[in-house]
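Sequence in, structure out. Go.
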Amino acid sequence: MALIKDTDLIVAATTYIDEFSRPTRSIERQMRNIEKRYLEQYENRIKIFYVVLLVILFVLLVCIYFYARSVIRPIRYLSEVADRISMGELDTPIRIKAKGEVGVLAESIERMQTSVKAAIERLQRRKESRT
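Output:
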C-alpha cells in the first residue's frame, strides 16, 4: 500500500509470488543444465586422460622391455661363450660387435680365449720337447 501525495488516497496492489520466483526457477534450471554438461565433459576428459596415460605407460613398458632385452642378450651370449671356453671349447666364436661396456667385455673374453689357447699350445710344446 502506498499513500498518494497531497491526497487522502491509498493505492494497494497485490502480486503472486510465482511472478517473482518463476525467473529464479528458470535460472536454476539453466544452471543445472550447465552443471550437468560441464560434469559430462569433465568425465569424458578424465576418461581420455586415463586412456592416454595407459597407452603411454604401455608404450614405455614395451620400449623398456626391448631395450633391456637388447642389453641382456649379448651379456647372456658372452656368458655362454665363457662357459664353453671354460669347458675347453677354445674355438668358440665371439660374434659381438657392441659398443660400450658389453663391447669391452667381449674384447676381454676374446683376449682371454687367445691367451688360454697360447698357454695350452706352450704347454703342449713343452710336453713334446720333454719326450
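Check: The chain has one domain: 2-130. DSSP finds two helices and two strands in the chain.
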